[in-house]
Amino acid sequence: MYRRLTPDGEDAERRTVLDGGVTWFPRPHRDDVLLALLGLSGGLLLWALGLHSTGNRHLLPAWTTLVPLAVMAGMELLRRSMPRTILAVGTLAVIADQFTVGNLGTVIMFTDLMYAAVVYGTPASARRIPVITGLITVAMTIGALAWLRRPEALLIGVVTGLVSFAPALTGAALRNHREAAVAARLRAEQTALLAEIDRTQAITAERSRMARELHDMVANHLSAIAIHSTAALSIGTPKASTDALAVIRENSVQGLSEMRRLIGLLRDSSGDQEPTAAPSLDSVDVLLDQARTVGADSGLAFTLDDTRPPGGRLPAPVEMAAYRIVQESLTNALKHASPGTVAVTLAHTDRLLSVAVTSPYGERPGPRAPGSGAGLVGMQERVTLLDGALEAGPTNTDADSKIWQVRAELPVEDDTELHA
């Protein structure tokens, strides 16, 4: 049997129930064929046995009741594909049946057509048919009472309600149930999709954070190793080679220790490992001491100008970001700065923490480590996460003195709020 599938693979028959669209099926559904055969066979059996629903009417020959029966059976074949058409034709057939001796099979199949018109019809039809059939039932009851003026007239209203209003109401209930089930399934799929998106974003954010931490912790040590290993290879004096190898060993040990600590944190999924203190601006002096040791042979001097008020506390994310910015800026200065002074400035005014690192740049003697640009990317990511601003570039382009500056402004809360 041919069935048209929607783009998402859903059966067109089921889609008809959801959006009310009419889909033509070249071949009827097997259940509809079964209903048509059962209805037609039952009606023929009743007619052959002489069991008529309106036996006291002999306006037409008895065989004429088979015409509405056949028409109704034919409509059963189209109950899913042409719901409005089958309801209109079925209504005319059941009315025509009342002018014959009548057949119960015709009436029963009409109730099924009423049900199908609500289930498979348009949303507007599904809303209107129960209301219309309800009004018809009430009108028939009142009209019968006014005409016959006997209590038995109520049976006409009851029969009308059973034939029209009851199946329409049943179809509406089933359709609402199906639509609610589909809506719940769509919500579940959307929730699962959003959860997957959140999981992917969380994984991406965590990988970016890990990349920043790994670069910031190890890059300065590897840069020192690269610079001094090149110096050890290019300088022929034993003392210079010994000093360079000592610096290489020191930075190798420190870098290896930090790598082991990071790997231990990543592998520990139980949470039993004690958390390590996050680096803060109080440790900037240690960074400068390390930079002085590494940069002494390159003619670099390092100074710190910290104008922050004493005893002030900053949020941990701000402290961490500022520390990493200073660390990466010093690493870049060791790689690229020409002989001169590298100045680190820290200032905290109102709700803003300013971090600035200036260094001379240009031609420099001796070895220099290659750069990948990942450091600037990491600094920008850290500042963006805190809604701050970062500037990196030359500030003085005079021929005699060229200055490279990294300046970050990080918003922080007021000290009084932090102590509250």
Key traits:
420 residues, alpha+beta, Heat Shock Protein 90, 2 domains, 11% strand
Detailed description of the structure:
The chain has twelve helices and five strands. Residues 1-25 and 415-420 have low confidence and may be disordered. It has two domains: 12-194, no CATH class; 279-420, Heat Shock Protein 90 (2-Layer Sandwich). The longest helix has 81 residues, at 154-234. The two termini are 75 Å apart. By secondary structure, it is of the alpha+beta class. It has helices at 12-19, 30-48, 66-76, 83-97, 104-120, 123-148, 154-234, 238-267, 284-295, 316-336, 374-385, 415-419; strands at 300-306, 340-349, 352-360, 389-397, 402-411. The chain has a five-stranded mixed sheet with strand order 1-2-3-5-4, with helices on one face.
Give a nutshell description of this structure:
By secondary structure, the protein is α+β, with helices and mostly antiparallel strands.
Question: How would the blueprint of this fold be written?
Answer:
Elements: H1 12-19, H2 30-48, H3 66-76, H4 83-97, H5 104-120, H6 123-148, H7 154-234, H8 238-267, H9 284-295, E1 300-306, H10 316-336, E2 340-349, E3 352-360, H11 374-385, E4 389-397, E5 402-411, H12 415-419
Parallel strand pairs: 1-2
Antiparallel strand pairs: 2-3, 3-5, 4-5
Helix pairs in contact: 2-3, 2-5, 3-4, 3-5, 4-5, 5-6, 5-7, 6-7, 7-8, 7-10, 7-11, 9-10, 10-11
